[in-house]
Model the fold of this input.
Amino acid sequence: MQLSMRGLVPAHLVQQLAGRPSQVWNTEVSLPSGACVFVQAPSGRGKTTLIHMLYGLRTGYTGAISFGDLKMDQLSDDRLSALRAKELSVIFQDMRLFPSLTALENIEVKRALTNTVTAEEVQAWLAQLGIGHKAHATAATLSYGEQQRVAIIRALVQPFAWLLMDEPFSHLDVANRQLAIDLIKSVAQRRNAGLFLTDLDANNYFPYTHTFLM
Amino acid sequence: MRRSSILNRLLLLHTGRARLWTALAVLAAGTFLLLLSVLAWSDFDLLIKGGEGNGTESYIVIGKQITERNMGSASANAFSAAEISEVRHAPQVLDAGEITPALFPVYAEVGGQLPLQTELPLASVPDRFLDAVPSDWNWQPGNPNLPVVLAARFLDIYNYVFAPGQGLPQLSRGSVQAIGMRMKVGSDPSVQVFSAHISGFSDRVGSVLVPQSFITYGNSRFAASAGPVRVMQLILRVADPSDPQFVTWLQQHGYTTEPQGLQWSRMRAIVQSVAAATGGLAVLLMVAGALIFMLFIELSVTRSRSSLVLLHQLGYSRRYLVGFMVRRFLPRVAGSLLLALVGTVFVQAVVSSRLAAAQLHLPALPGAVVWAAFVLCSVLVSAAVYRAIVRSVAAAEA
Done:
């Protein structure tokens, strides 16, 4: 599923972006399916805004985003929900877990939407990322690092053509980050999915095919 | 681990159970009262209109009101042919018959152990207006035997007022029918004597009735003055004497009748007032219940707003979330409404069995109107609850 961005300018960043060169904003970007994309920018340049626009959470912008034939600003709620459930997954920078649910329940809420991953696989992934013992702890009691790993697994338990990641390893140490990267790589490879990652600094977490400075 | 139980915890656990049960109880009470008022109205309607052997019609005797102005004028107080025709077309009137008075004197003597002598006010009505037509109810000129139908209240007056005071025996209907009477008709020199006997009793007409052929014969033969027979009273067969239109029509024309003939009208007015007042209160209560329930839904959604928003972000469509909440709330609403219906059915069963003892027959189950009211209430409340859920879910993301 090809991802296209055409002349994107978020309404709240119009003045901030004026006269400033960007490889993402107010330009045309076309990404083939299965691409591995990295967008680098310091704080305040709109990385989270871009992820939210791509995921359909934010609508205040000019320009157009499309996944294949689907134009994001023309989708019905049902179609957008189906897109989020089956074709587009996301790891939010702020994790966005249900604090009252356990780690496993947080993942189950997403897994039950499509049942593409078994409960056993989820347990295995929790163990793989070193939080198997926290499966039944409520999200509110988990550290940021643990929450981030739960959020990563939650993003992987659905079918997806693109995985959007907004500073996905910001709370992880090097060892845990590598475990997470390995898991994401293997699942994305299995699904022939594209990866779209934003972060502050240059990195080689994934074998990027496209790199942009915001 | 079931998804629905997780969603339940996310979306519905923030709400107080006490609030939920209060809202449902108010809703059930309002619906119950509403159905009861409809039930009272429909049962009363059924009773007065006749269903299931409650007597479909009533017989009423009407006459013109005698006032100081018209009391001297017999002709003014009689019904003209035009007036009789108009009566036949009055609201609720199915049939009208003339009560033809005897224009000749009648003197009756009872012999044996019952030494009674009295003048009698004879009259006749068309046979179809008799309570029951006696088997010997016919008379032809030359026949010395005359059947009589006595107003039942005459026997009551004799038994309870006259006989005790005079030291006379009280008489059953059967024994009265066995007593013969010597009836002297006309005045000297034209007098004829008949052997009369009581063939039956009437609750409808307060006179001594004889066959019409006898009155026709007597009026032509023994009348003191020649002239047309003036009809002073009419007997009406009325479909629903409680109909306010009929009562108003009587009043507008200055016609009087016995008060008990119109008792259903007063009772209907009372029942309708009570049913309307109860119905009004019930509607208020039901609306209050539905509003409380809708506020409860909005409160629930508001409290679980962050969960609702995140679920939507994770791929749960609004349609799914609305459906989930509808599946949780509507069964509870349906339970409340069904409870009200069960209560109403129970009340009908109790009322039906109690009234059966008074020879008033009602069906054991509520009538179609009550079921229709229940369906209407259910549809309206369900639609209101559904709308509240849709609006609340949409507002949560706004």
